[in-house]
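Consider the tokenized backbone below.
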């Protein structure tokens, strides 16, 4: 967002650029109209024209800036420190710390050398971050960071310098760090650690918005090879060349993860017809750091049962071990019968009375494991990209790969548009965004209401209950003199109160 203080400076620069480079920009600004620039309408038009030309330039440099290997996440190249040290960092919309390897680790090919950077500033604060798989420990500090795809913007950012990691880095993945793109509320060790993107927006004037086009193993530039995945991350704008049709937007209901609310889920054309709260039990997040689409157990069971039924009806009957994600399914190269599998749809509200659906084609959720990992060179092997979850629905890379996903933080919305990525099989169904449909219900009824750790009222209630528990137990403890019994009872209550402390689902463990 533009800050009001810089408006006069901005207008001056606009005037300067407008008169100096009128040939390039094609529309010069007459000096006599300068005083009129403060008129509201003029100001709006000016912002739009400048904004557009500036962004067009940035879009170009930001296309195809993501790479990765199947199941190992998407990474972006950054320069850290002075002189700059190039690092690849995993893009994770499910966490909020920027962290890089800063000491040797057998699973990374290089690490950031703090002592070589003249702009590095350390601190004595340490940070520990656990994920469902693995964890890392580091030291908080700051340094200058430049995205190589946005070379003109350098900001000082908080960085966690990783000194110890177990099960976090992936040998051969080519990334040495992680960029958490979510809100400060889930930053570690606490929300005082301002995330990189917030610093970028505050110090560069780019819009508070980014968009992700994840293309899986088939993307325009290297359609020949499926060793690698590709995609584009657009900072500060929406690149019109990366989507077809319009984007449909749904509200971010809470700014911590990118939490949104699902109002319906179906397989083929048939809704699962469950209580919509179940779809969001206990939250629904958009997370590029998780490979699969993960669903709450009851929803998962229902979806899988319907997929198996429809697939069987089409004459294909993969073994149970495939559906469970334990075994790959292989076909001769380019012969996977996508049309034997049904599509899955997930619906969201756009306004109070209208909804839209993401139609996730089997090309998304039957995910290729990459030629490197195929069981034989003339086969294509696939894994199921749907898994169950005990921490809520995760719309991971498998879902995001079908769409251009806009994280419009300024308007507190997530947008989905049909992506321009190439598909493996253009003759089979592809993912799409359908809508708008009339929706008569209340999407708020679908949200899972969770006890908020920061909610003072709930804290007070919890302490009062703990107090009552204590008061009830003390006489019993004294009377029965069973000391251990008392501590375990009280310990149990305290633990429950703290259990909102989530761990992140970084990505699938399979490589
Ligand atoms: C960066 O700045 C240089 C010169 O100031 C300019 O030529 C170039 O187009 C800019 N690049 C981007 C991506 O804005
Ligand atoms: C990492 O992978 C390389 C080759 O892929 C291998 O030589 C090396 O031993 C691996 N390192 C560890 C720690 O597994
Ligand atoms: C850091 O400095 C050392 C000593 O000058 C040098 O050997 C090393 O290559 C430097 N590392 C980087 C990443 O620049
Ligand atoms: C199911 O949806 C497809 C498009 O996704 C449509 O062509 C078809 O007619 C629908 N079938 C039924 C029975 O509604």
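A designed sequence for it:
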């Amino acid at each position: 967002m533009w800050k009001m203080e810089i408006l006069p400076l901005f207008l001056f620069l606009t005037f300067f650029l407008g008169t100096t480079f009128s040939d390039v920009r094609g529309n010069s600004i007459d000096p006599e109209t300068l005083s009129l620039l403060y008129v509201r309408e003029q100001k709006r038009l000016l912002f739009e024209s400048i904004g557009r030309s500036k962004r067009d330039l940035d879009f170009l440099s930001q296309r195809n800036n993501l790479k990765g290997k199947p199941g190992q996440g998407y990474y972006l190249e950054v320069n850290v420190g002075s002189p700059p040290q190039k690092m690849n960092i995993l893009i994770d919309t499910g966490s909020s710390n920027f962290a890089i390897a800063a000491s040797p680790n057998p699973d990374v090919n290089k690490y950031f050398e703090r002592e070589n950077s003249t702009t590095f500033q350390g601190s004595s604060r340490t940070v520990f971050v656990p994920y469902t798989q693995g964890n890392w420990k580091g030291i908080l500090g700051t340094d200058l960071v430049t995205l190589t795809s946005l070379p003109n913007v350098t900001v000082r950012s908080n960085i966690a310098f990783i000194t110890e990691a177990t099960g976090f880095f992936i040998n051969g993945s080519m990334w040495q760090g992680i960029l958490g793109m979510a809100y400060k509320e889930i930053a570690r060790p606490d929300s005082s650690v301002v995330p990189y993107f917030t610093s970028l927006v505050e110090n560069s004037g780019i819009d508070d918005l980014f968009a992700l086009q994840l293309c899986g193993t088939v993307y325009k530039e290297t359609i020949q090879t499926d060793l690698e995945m590709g995609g584009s991350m657009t900072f500060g704008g929406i690149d019109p060349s990366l989507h077809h049709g319009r984007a449909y937007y749904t509200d971010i209901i809470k700014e911590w993860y990118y939490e949104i609310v699902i109002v319906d889920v179906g397989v083929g054309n048939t809704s699962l017809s469950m209580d919509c709260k179940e779809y969001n039990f206990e939250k629904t997040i958009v997370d590029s750091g998780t490979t699969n689409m993960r669903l709450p157990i009851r929803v998962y069971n229902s979806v899988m049962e319907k997929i198996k039924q429809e697939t069987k009806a089409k004459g294909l009957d993969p073994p149970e071990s495939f559906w469970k994600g334990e075994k790959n399914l292989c076909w001769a190269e380019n012969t996977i019968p996508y049309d034997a599998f049904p599509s899955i749809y997930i619906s969201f509200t756009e306004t109070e009375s209208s909804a839209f659906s993401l139609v996730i084609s089997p090309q998304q959720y039957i995910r290729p494991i990459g030629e490197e990992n195929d069981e034989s060179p003339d086969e294509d092997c696939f894994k199921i990209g749907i898994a169950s979850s005990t921490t809520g629905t995760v719309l991971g890379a498998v879902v995001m790969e079908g769409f251009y996903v806009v994280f419009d933080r300024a308007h507190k919305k997530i947008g989905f548009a049909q992506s321009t990525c190439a598909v493996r099989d253009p003759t089979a169904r592809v993912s799409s965004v359908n809508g708008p449909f009339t929706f008569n219900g209340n999407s708020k009824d679908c949200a899972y209401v969770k006890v908020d750790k920061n909610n003072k009222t709930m804290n007070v209630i919890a302490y009062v209950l703990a107090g009552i528990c204590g008061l009830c137990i003390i006489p019993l403890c004294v009377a029965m003199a069973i000391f251990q019994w008392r501590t375990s009872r009280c310990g149990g209550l305290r633990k429950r109160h703290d259990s909102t402390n989530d761990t992140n689902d970084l990505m699938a463990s399979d490589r």
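The CA atoms of residues 61 and 151 lie 9 Å apart.
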